[in-house]
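Attaching the record inline, Q. Sequence:
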Amino acid sequence: MTLNPLGNDKMATWCNSWATQDGKVHVPVNYDWKTIDRSEGSDPSESIQQGADLLNSLIAEHISGGPVWVFGHSKGAQVIGRWLIKYGATSGFSAANLKFVCTGNPTSPLGHVPWVKFPQPTNGVGVYSVIDIGRQWDGWCRWPSTSNFFTIIKAISGMFSVHPRYNVSLNSVGVPTSGVISTQVIGNTTCYTIN
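Structure, as predicted:
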């Protein structure tokens, strides 16, 4: 299952078409990923909640057919985080048959741009494993821990030049096959920082 980021409907081809490799059946989660309603009184996270609710229904529909991989980038990764928070502890789905892969995750436990308020980090809430992949200098998901003029400029630039480009190859279980700079485990989430 794939969850599109804001403004991009190419999750089937993301990360060298990982979502369709090794016999995976591609099932897009058709939530409103195209917009963020910024009008007065609106809740910009409504589409994220809508995505989590749709994701829950699709998981229930497909889980009996074998392992389900949920793959989301950016806003799609936020939908995964919302699902983990809302449904993860009570869903009853087997952790052996349900896995999550996030790229460019603004709710990554490794941090994000500090002046934007995002919901609770995706820390592998409950029993589910999460693979969190972020590119170095992608300010949306890997804000530098040492901030100086140079690193801040690179991270801000990376929000527009690095964030939309995750041309990394993943193995059959969603782990990057090259370019890994660091690996950290936080709760049930394994975080990979890549070139």
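The mean pLDDT is 85. The two ends are 25 Å apart (CA to CA).

More tomorrow.
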